[in-house]
Design brief:
Elements: H1 4-11, E1 18-20, E2 26-28, E3 43-49, H2 59-72, E4 77-81, H3 86-90, E5 98-99, E6 102-105, H4 107-111, H5 117-137, E7 144-147, E8 151-153, E9 163-164, H6 166-170, E10 176-177, E11 179-181, H7 186-193, H8 200-209, E12 211-215, E13 220-222, H9 229-236, E14 243-247, E15 252-255, H10 270-279, E16 282-286, H11 291-306, E17 312-317, H12 319-325, H13 341-353, E18 358-363, H14 370-382, E19 387-390, H15 392-395, H16 401-412, H17 428-440, E20 444-447, H18 449-460, E21 468-471, E22 489-492, E23 494-498, E24 503-507, E25 527-528, E26 534-535
Parallel strand pairs: 3-16, 3-17, 4-15, 4-16, 8-11, 17-18, 18-19, 20-22, 21-24
Antiparallel strand pairs: 1-2, 2-14, 5-6, 6-14, 7-12, 9-10, 12-13, 14-15, 23-24, 25-26
Length: 538
């Protein structure tokens, strides 16, 4: 690894703008960058994927290697990623810093505590929860009838899904609550959606708008009613600055924020993305899960609120994932591809709906047969979308150079503006239907009575104009992880207002913001060697 001052120097960021966390990672102060963008021609590239499977499709490795490849082609490129959550690190997935020769480093530090951002987000969220409970305990002057704020913890723990506070019951206000993963908290979404280069006032204003309960007369109780926003902002003061690390090949890596795409908007922070755009020719970012979740929210929530204009998209897939996706479809597609062909085709179409040029990265595994790789490549090209088998896990940036070269050529042509699938002024129902029908392929939307009551309340509060953030399983286009058919309605069981983040969350199916650990958690394989080095995390 190179000293982080050298990585910053590549970007033209002076050493005095860094807040070092050791030799190899740092926060980058926002205050020195008050001038307009220094590189107005920087291209923003989105990396997304087909529907995820147990194999892992390789979005993160692809995004990292693509930045490395662009730097090999004498372009200044940085990768912009989310910070890993401890939930999947110790649960099913393991670390989230890439793999093989396409990694960001220092890997173990990034996967675990990094610069403390997640701890700050959790502390701010839980301070608000404590102040809310404290207010109720000491007489409930605001006449709070019900609360909606979950505490947060970045460890999967089923026991924390439902809690009862006996002290509050004694105070005359029985209160049930729960925990969510830190990445699912509204505070995390607020951090990632800040847009100002002097964001501390914006941070306090967004925190103040958070709705945490309802009064006896039906009016919203906000964070500002408890006067908690100032103390919360103080806890988040340093977390606001983007984090800078590096890839194994020495490319700059901005790693900041970490919301999940199945329960939040699933993108890294706007501040980090904009910082990369100011100092690079190419900024490569990823959005969580597939085009139906992360990419859709990247366009409708992140790009719309920040005024970002992506130039192209890279869709990641693999032979083994397409076979896994299609195993419940006995029929073969007309093109001769396995049942997963329908999934690949739909994800391509989803990106094209937004006006995005699409390039497909076929993440090659060692046991892939050449004829299978050729089948996927031919299928993509039949959709008029170029595709390349890529070996970046084994070879780093060298393994994805062909795709990177094609991307350079693609971004030199005239760009089409980003197209949205719904207007900002559309009703919630119209926005929901647009995503469900156009992106998921649903026949319609079935909003349950409880969700309709939620929605009516938010409309009365003047929040009907917010974009929709759909929370559902990532393992199917429907709300049922095991569904592999073509005909379904999207069920909406509840709607929650994230007033500080600025979106409405539609919960579909049995999605949970506090997942449990799997039967054999990844934590069982993690430990220290005789020299104190972490092993088994990746």
């Amino acid at each position: 690894m190179r000293p982080i001052t050298e990585i910053a120097e590549i970007l033209g960021i002076p050493a005095e703008a860094l807040i070092p966390y050791g030799q190899y990672k740092a926060k980058v102060r926002l205050s020195p960058f008050k001038t307009p963008r220094t590189n107005r021609n920087c291209k923003l590239i989105l990396v997304t994927a087909t529907t995820p499977t147990k194999f892992g499709e390789g979005k993160t490795t692809t995004a990292i290697a693509l930045a490395d490849a662009l730097n090999r082609l004498n372009k200044k490129a940085a990768v912009c990623l989310r910070e890993p959550s401890l939930g999947p690190c110790f649960g099913l997935k393991g670390g989230a810093t890439g793999g093989g020769k396409a990694q960001v480093v220092p890997t173990d530090e990034i996967n675990l505590h990094f610069t403390g951002d997640f701890h700050a987000v959790g502390a701010a969220n839980n301070l608000l929860a404590a102040m809310l409970d404290n207010h109720i305990y000491w007489g409930n002057k605001l006449q709070i009838k019900s609360t909606s704020l979950a505490r947060s913890l970045d460890i999967n723990d089923r026991a924390l899904r439902n809690l009862l506070h006996p002290d509050l019951a004694l105070a005359g206000s029985p209160k049930h609550s729960s925990f969510s993963l830190t990445v699912a908290s509204e505070v995390m979404a607020i951090l990632c959606l800040l847009t100002s280069k002097q964001p501390w006032q914006e941070l306090e204003e967004r925190l103040a708008r958070m709705i945490i309960g309802i009064s006896q007369d039906g009016t919203p109780i906000r964070c500002s009613d408890l006067k908690a926003q100032g103390a919360m902002a103080a806890l988040l003061k340093d977390a606001v600055h983007p984090n800078l690390a590096q890839t194994l090949e020495g490319s700059p890596a901005f790693i900041h924020g970490g919301p999940f795409a199945n329960i939040a908007h699933g993108c890294n922070s706007i501040l980090a993305t904009k910082m990369a755009l100011e100092h690079c020719d190419f900024a490569v970012t990823e959005a969580g899960f597939g085009s139906d979740l992360g990419a859709e929210k990247f366009f409708h929530i992140k790009c719309r609120s920040a005024g970002l204009e992506p130039s192209a998209s890279v869709l990641v897939t693999s032979v083994r994932s397409l076979k896994e996706i299609g195993k419940n479809r006995q029929e073969r597609s007309p093109a001769g591809l396995w049942g997963g062909a329908f999934n690949l085709k739909k994800h391509i179409e989803n990106l094209q709906l937004f006006g995005m040029p699409v390039l497909v990265a076929i993440n090659r595994f060692p046991d892939d047969k050449p004829e299978d790789l050729a089948l996927v490549k031919d299928f993509c090209e039949a959709q008029k979308v170029p595709a390349w088998p890529c070996t970046h896990f084994q070879e780093g940036g060298a393994g994805i150079l062909a795709l990177a070269s094609a991307l350079l050529e693609q971004t030199q042509s005239a760009e089409t503006p980003l197209r949205f699938l719904y207007a900002a002024e559309d009703s919630f129902e119209k926005k929901l239907e647009a995503v469900a029908k156009k992106i998921y392929g649903a026949q319609g939307v079935a909003i349950e009575s409880a969700a309709k009551a939620d929605l009516q309340r938010y409309q009365d509060w003047g929040a009907a104009h917010f974009p929709v953030c759909i929370a559902k399983t990532p393992y199917s286009f429907s709300a049922d992880a095991g569904f592999s058919g073509d005909s379904f309605d999207l069920p909406v069981r509840k709607v929650q207002l994230a007033a500080g983040a600025g979106f409405l969350v539609a919960y579909c199916g049995e999605i949970s913001s506090m997942p449990g650990l799997p039967r054999v958690p990844n934590a069982e394989s993690i430990g220290l060697d005789a020299e104190g080095n972490i092993k088994g995390l990746f």
